Amino acid sequence: MQTLTTIAKEALLPLTGLAKTMAIYRILSKQIEKLYENYPALHTHRDVTLHLLEKAQEQEGSTSSEGLPTVVIAVGHSRKHDEGATTWDGSTSEHGFNLKIATQVCELLEQSGLVKPVLLSKYGGKTYSQAIKWLSDKVNSLSDVALVAELHFNSSSNNKATGHEFLYWHSSSKGAAIAQTFSAKMCETFPKLQDRGAKPIKKGERGSLFLRKLAPVCLLCEPFFGSNLSDWNTFKDQKAQRELATSYFEAIIESVLS
Ligand SMILES: [Zn+2]
């Protein structure tokens, strides 16, 4: 059995404050279940311990259960007739890939009980600018939005282009900090993948309308190049997709709650 110290090193290090406390509760519950697994005679004792832990967890979380920050996970290219780029093997569109990732991220966020996730995967509007207007109205109708992250993957006519980058509005210091957190988390999770870093975007540049028009902090995630042989060979794997979702999840919790 892993000790709490070992687990803490792996899972808790990036977390702070309430996020860390809640993560410790979840780890403790699992460890207690395991500890008593082979001792049915002690299950009453186990249940009392778990009950006490649950009560402590409820108390800890109760103050924030109402006013949890909202995190919007938007699937890029969610406008009708826009699927985005396609991977080099023609198998997967940006929208299809990111709908899977966004669903996993929202599940993790929901389970954490630390933020309110909202998944957007169908935009209104016929043109790109109409879709951004729709998105902006939608986000404004939600309360306490701490972050809007739109998920994409990159594509280039130069099939050697590789790596991950996170785009933010150039004058937003919060956006820069969040993009750097996402970048660092990707470096930890996928150390072999090239780090293109946090990228400031100005008016007229790619994604500027999205990053500029919405009131809360926005981030555009480009975790790899679908046009790159090696990048897509990494990310077509289910395990890597799960790791990507976890990496986003941890970066969101760290960004929003610290
Ligand atoms: Zn895209």
Report the sheet with the most strands, covering strand number, pairing sense and barrel closure: 6 strands, mixed
% residues in beta strands: 5-15%
pLDDT < 50 runs, ≥5 residues: none
Q: Give the names of the bound compounds.
A: zinc ion
Rough outline: globular
Enumerate the strands of the largest sheet in spatial order, edge to edge or round the barrel: 2-1-3-6-4-5
CATH class of the largest domain: Alpha Beta
- Estimate percent helicity: 40-55%
CATH homologous superfamily annotation of the largest domain: Zn-dependent exopeptidases
The tally of helices reads 9
In angstroms, what separates the terminal alpha carbons? 30 Å
Q: What's the CATH architecture of the largest domain? A: 3-Layer(aba) Sandwich
Got a strand count?
A: 6
Number of domain units: 2
CATH topology of the largest domain: Aminopeptidase
Cα gyration radius (Å): 20 Å
Question: Structural class of the helix and strand makeup?
Answer: alpha/beta
